Amino acid sequence: MITHEQNEYLCRTGSGTPMGELFRRYWIPALMRQELPRPNCPPVQVQLLGERLIAFRDTQGRLGLMDEFCAHRGVSLWFGRNEENGLRCPYHGWKYDVTGQCVEVPSEPAEGGFCQKIKLKAYPCIELGDVVWTYMGAPSEQPPLPSFEWTGLQPSQRFITKRWQESNYLQAMEGGIDSSHVSFLHRGDLNSDPMHRNTAGAKFTSSRTNTVFDILETSGGLLIGARRNADPGFYYWRVTQWLMPWYTLIPPYKGQPANGHAWVPMDDDNCMAWTMTFHPVRDLSAEEIELMRKGGGVHAELIPGTYRPVANRSNGYLIDRAAQEAGKYYSGVRGLAIQDASVQESMGPIADRTKENLVSTDNAIIMARLRLRKAAQAVAEGTRAPGLEEAAQSVRSASFVLPVDGKFKDAALDAVKVRKGEHHVAV
Length: 427
Ligand code: FES
Ligand SMILES: [Fe+2]
Description:
Layout: H1 4-11, H2 18-23, E1 27-32, E2 44-48, E3 51-57, E4 63-67, E5 81-82, E6 87-88, E7 95-96, E8 102-104, E9 125-128, E10 131-135, E11 158-165, H3 169-177, H4 182-185, H5 187-190, H6 200-207, E12 212-218, E13 221-229, E14 234-243, E15 247-250, E16 258-267, E17 270-278, H7 286-293, H8 321-326, H9 336-345, H10 363-380, H11 390-393, E18 398-403, H12 408-415
Antiparallel strand pairs: 1-10, 2-3, 3-4, 5-6, 6-7, 7-8, 9-10, 11-17, 12-13, 13-14, 14-15, 14-18, 15-16, 16-17
Bound molecules: FE2/S2 (inorganic) cluster and fe (ii) ion.
């Protein structure tokens, strides 16, 4: 349980809020590269940290991300004409380049230089790992490029989707940190989903509900060990990574691709749940990609042309009570991603944490909240944000079996090292 004030501190991400200022120290996944596939393609609306923005790729292929609304009288530049190295508002023809600079105001004489005085707020963008990232903080604090394992693989080795979740980022991310719910909410799917079933990990996770945690603090977040009983004399360990400021890496299942999420605030009541599936050794197969597009693995089936899941709040997540009763889907909702979204959205736009009753399996959540708060305080006092260095980002999740007297910490720290071209440690 935390106070209302503490909850507000953690959940508000607009400009000038403590968390908002912390998050503006990181490169932020803004949109998928394929949303801006070619020069002069249609512009795309993007919402980040409570700011409404428009993204476009100009005639030279340069990326722009700027205030969505025209400086003249506030028309959305989503209607804009993307032409000759700039986005032109269709109302009266004002035109902006990728830096947000107004380059033409047709009604005014060019020699008067009026347009030079008009500039929309704009943020720098980079393309890395099939994602367009932006940096929304002070230029002097711009960090090095992201160095997560999946960003450095071949495009054929990864598959990335994003889905709109109607909740604050924090309760979504807490679901990614909380490894104990897997034995309940996702139990049915572990034994049926093709990207989970038939592994020792799926067997232990779905059948052993008693989870004991061992959590290590790392420079860039938390290494969260969740222990379940395996065969007599052994423990099955799942190691989740929580990485500053909003990434989680899911423990892998043997032979299967690994998964990670980014829980990125759109505004305080909505977040974009990014899902990265990647295999360090091989290309993803056509069957795997087709399966994920249809809501298999940890992805969601989306309404075509949108990032809204087909099963969503407006249709009761298509809950199937017969499947719930039969245990096919433990909650009756199909698919791991929508199972998570449904329970998290049911908490309300911002979970009221003054009413919760936390237990030992929530320890990692408590620690993550504390780390976020400390990081925001440190940044407010002028310190560099944590977790920006390669050593903090270039890590893996893992799962393994150890004898009951085995040393978890040593095994975990070794298992999470990124070894190029080698499989994840997984059972
Ligand atoms: S509102 Fe955009 S040009 Fe007038
Ligand atoms: Fe989940």
